[in-house]
Amino acid sequence: MTQKTILLVGHGSRIEEGNEELRNFTAQLAARMPELNIETCFIELASPSIAGGIERCVAGGAGVVYVVPIILFAAGHSKLDIPLAIDQAKRKYPAVEFIYGRPVGVQERAVDILLDRITEAVPLGLRDKPDTEPVAAEDTIVLVMGRGGSDPDANSDFYKLARLLWEHTPYKSVESCFIAIAQPSLNEGLERCLALGARKIVVLPYLLFTGVLMKQFTERAAAFAAAHPEVEVELGSYIGNHPLLADMLAERIEETLEGKSFANCDTCRYRDAAELHHHHHHHGEEGHGHDHGYGHNHEPHHGDEHDPKHGHNHHHGHSHAHDHGHDDSVPAAAAGSLKEL
Predict the structure, then answer these.
(1) Cα angle: 316, vertex 319, 323; to 5 degrees
(2) Which of 105, 213, 266, 287 is the most buried (most CB within 10 A)?
(3) Cα–Cα distance for residue pair 28/25, rounded to 1 Å
(4) pLDDT band with cut points at 50, 70 and 90 for residue 130
């Protein structure tokens, strides 16, 4: 019996360590699912490209390629870039069928990962401090930092995840911020925690693997801790090779194989309009908040669009922008113009 072929699509980073982390993650996932032929590719900044990954799948004899994004939330890359690459592949390989999965999205297991990262967070001890009593939960705020983008639906999903995290913790608050394009910025998020009276701030990056953004995050958090020695600041890690991430991706693979993925990109008229204006600016690097921003969601074509186990929500509004903003040091105007298309 011929193995089914899965093409996992990661973002890619200018920092090779991040690309290697993704490759190691997908290799472990492949070992966990030996009945499948699993290939890995990248949207940008690393090889193979999506086109190169598809070529490997077809050269390996795949008649059907199941494309699953390793992306946290549905935004420009998963809504436009990957479907455009699939469209090109359909023209190049008319005898091959392509079935597209969906990003990780909002899941309870993502909350569990963040809870683990809170437990593992390490103090940013920039100078010797005398031993003091631990800061009480009611004086502690968790600040979760997302990547950020021009897609309001993806940004709101991130806020939903932060709210779910708050529901599972005893802390004074769980606040949200972004490292690129969207606001509030990381610096603004940290200042908000101060304004809310935090004596301790646990800062968590909700990023998949290391890269330019993770290094920016660490530097900015450390600078804030140095400027505010009166506040305890703890730094959490990115998601990385957490076993629950493998569980979430395995579930996305299974639902794609079973035809339970709900994005129908073939008939999306918004993508047709977006493609007229879309030129791949892949010279921009990951740390510059590169985001095509043609955000849109697709109506499900199945009645049972909600997973009863995990309470996934599916937003069906269309939202469009073409935003080439850079990181959160860029003026606020970079986050505007959300309705250009």
Answers:
(1) 145
(2) 213
(3) 5
(4) low
Q: Which two structure tokens, joined as six digits, stand for 319? A: 């939202």
Q: How high is the mean pLDDT of the chain?
A: 82
**Residue type for 298, please?**
H
The 10 Å CB-count burial string (b at 16+, else e) for 267-277 is ebebbeebeee
One-letter amino acid identity for 185?
S
Q: What is the dihedral of CA 178, 180, 183, 185, to 10 degrees?
A: 60
Query: Is 60 exceeded by the pLDDT of residue 263?
Result: no
Residues recorded for the chain: 341
- Hey, what are 192's tokens? 């908000």
Evaluate whether 206 touches 179 at the Cβ level (below 8 Å). no
Of 88, 327, 135, which Cα lies nearest the Cα of 231? 135
What DSSP state is assigned to residue 296? B
With beta carbons less than 8 A apart as the criterion, state whether 235 and 121 touch: yes
* pLDDT at 331 exceeding the cut of 80: no
Separation of alpha carbons 90 and 192, rounded Å: 48
Q: Which CATH number is associated with domain 4-104+242-335?
A: 3.40.50.1400
Question: The CATH number of 108-235 is which of 3.40.50.1400, 3.40.710.10, 3.50.50.60, 2.40.50.140?
Answer: 3.40.50.1400
pLDDT band at 268 (very low <50, low <70, confident <90, very high): low
> What does DSSP assign to residue 138?
G
Laid out side by side, the sheet with 232-235 consists of: 122-123, 232-235, 200-205, 140-146, 173-178
**Structure-block tokens of residue 147:** 């990547």
Residue corresponding to tokens 């072929």? 5
Q: Is the pLDDT of residue 335 over 70?
A: no
Give residue-wise pLDDT tens across range 294-325: 334 443 333 333 333 333 333 333 333 333 33
